[in-house]
Amino acid sequence: MNDPWVTALLRGRWVESLLAVTALVAVSWPLGELVSTRPWIGPLFGVLLLVVAAGSLVRMARVPAWLVLLAQVLALLSGLAGWAQQHRPADESALVAMSALVRQGIGTIQTYAVPAPATPGLTFVVLGSIAALALVVEALGVTLRAGALAGIPLLLVSAGAASGSGQALDPRYFLIGAAAWLVLLAQQGRSRLEEEQDGPQAAVSVDRAAAARGNHHRLGVTARVMGLSALVLAVVLPGMLPHLPPTVLVDGRSGEGAPGTVSFTDTLDLSQDLADRSNAPVIRYRTDDSSPPPLRVMSSLTYADGQWLPVGDATSGPFREPFLSPMSTLIYPESGIESTPRTMTVTQNGMRAPQLAMPYPASEVDLGEVGWTWDPLSEAMHVDSAPGTYEVRYHEMGALETLPEEVGAPPEPLADRYPPDTLVNETTEDGAVFTTTPDGMTVAMMYPDGRYETYLSDGTTVVEHPDGTLQRTFGYGGPNTLAVDPASAGVVGDLAAELAGDRTNQIDVALEIQRYLRSPEFSYSLTLADPVEGPDGEPLDPISHFLATKQGYCTQFATAMVMMARAQGIPARLAVGFLPGSRGLDGTRTVVASDAHAWPELFITGLGWTRFEPTPGQRSGTAPTYATEGQQQEVPTPQEVPSTEEPTAAPAVPDTTGGMGAGGEESWFERHAETIGWTALSLAAVVALASVVPLAGRWHRWRSRRGRSPAAWIEAEWTALVDGLADLGVAPPPAATPRVLRDHYARQIQPDAAARDALDRATDRLESARYAARTPELGTMREDVRRVVEWQRGRVTRRRRLLATLLPTSGRTQLGSLLPGRRPHPAAP
């Protein structure tokens, strides 16, 4: 290679650089599954080519490694700055643009679930993160020539991709990255052999055949071991890693069937995608109801910043009661509404405590020995532990041609039912004024701070604050059930008023909103539409975005109806739970994780909390219909409510696990998968730490041989012999000549004939390198040293061999040289 241009190109290590970034892109590719699209692919390749070109061009100039890294960092920042300025206002500086995109990207990560929409901010974060990781791998594997160390960030990125996606990593991604990494190691090995054979010692005679055989043998063994390890890790590790659940409607590794494996998140972020599409069973039950309602788990009355918030703490709160008292069970008899009692028997329960799934309104629950409390505000049950089986009795509203006239009528103030002159105002010592009726019932109250409460005929309270704002609550200090999201109030209010028209009955208004959302204008999709900019140039809020794009899943449909109902003065809340599932041949129903569902509940005068179904029929089945005096019609018999997908398992069969859920159906690996995963990660961390000193030793030996004179190479190999034998318990005598060392080692290790010959040759070559007028050839010096050390390794205990492998003297010396004030090893450059 006498052509200087060819030599310069090889010095740039273009091929190794491309292999390094290819390995990182391969192992990080699954991260793209967390986003709806991959708009960063083109910019990523462009930025990575800048990094590769900058590093390779600077390396061609024979400059220090830190200058190479500086050039690559500047190239990376330049590429990212150029992309950022293309997606931000032109008058912003590159630094301001990048900072704004990072903030937007972090906000998207915190707000959206997988697959999140590819906003410019999220695209920039992913682009910058992958490019920065590629720079780290390239710096370790190419600039610093530590290809083995470059495998550590590759493994960590691969593990992170497997954990973050919530599902097992496809082995192909791991194999592609591992293959690129192995080719990088092989390319480095060949380059080093060429440097050794064509480098500084080219002027002397070298036994190239012997050296090549030894190096090729070690390279082949290393490649085979690494290749086999990569294959095993690619198949085993992704399935063993504990997958971090994305922030979605259902939280946890769903559907395993055993008690306590699935629960709903306390907050429902409207900007998220419903990601859990598993067909694994969650609940199996039997019921005498031919068309059972959804299984309700929890509800929320407060919506803020795109999220539905819990009523209170999951296990305690001021509204907890030890008895079951749904409002509808009390209101039905008062309104003359007939209902049919039904029974549901759960044979397998996969819900995690404190949550429990059951139809609404339930009148009685048998949980065996499990303790429970009832929250009358959210009307949800909280259990102390997950029951394997339980029984629920609930009420099904009877089919009526029409509802009573008073049902759905706007509630009136209780004070309006009495002549004004019969009402009495009483003032308390603290200045509060009570308005009472002749029979002693309080119908209104004025507080000293100016708040005025009016009690309505439906049991709710209207609170008028001094600033003129109104609040509709249940009980004392409850959430405002008429609060409309401020960000979308204008859009929601106008649309609700248009749909309601001249209608005054709550049922009529609700059915019109339900009809509109179930119309062909809207489409059901587990993936949200791309962000839409509002008049101010910022992305629309989640509700306005849904009403504009008309695309979403159950949470979006239910939230939109809740807000439109509230805008029309109808109290409303969001309920979450499961669709009733699919019916097996024996009558047992199976609810799977993908049956997770959300629907609105409106507080209708004369009915109480009443379920509506705005989500399109292909997901939710037939919507409830309630006929009023103004819309006389026969109430249709509810149809079967289908699951999104039929379970892939065989038809449901009766429970044979003794009431302990599906735990008996799980394999040992399934039951302990998470423990195994964390154990594997811990072992990987231990292995990585244990590799630091040996890798440092290899780094030291490579540096001691690279770019030095043949005499220095021989000295470095002799140092490896001294260190290797010292690690194996044979310490050298102080200030000994080569021959004294030889005789000392011969007495201590008692070598066989082949090892003694190797020791003699190594000693003669060292003496010639130190004292002869002409430097000898390297010859088989390295193989002779290895033979002597291996002889002693075979004679010592396993513990000594392990210590020599994990804590070699060369590695400890190299690491010690990095400490302030420490001198490097004598053989180090």
From TrEMBL:
This chain's protein is named Transglutaminase-like domain-containing protein
**Keyword list, A-Z:** Membrane, Transmembrane, Transmembrane helix
- Composition bias (Low complexity) maps to 628-642
Kindly indicate whether the keyword Electron transport belongs to this entry: no
Which SMART domains does the record associate with it?
TGc
Q: Which Pfam families match?
A: TgpA_N, Transglut_core
Residue ranges of the region described as Disordered: 613-660
The answer to whether the entry has keyword Membrane is yes
Say which domain of life the source belongs to. Answer: Bacteria
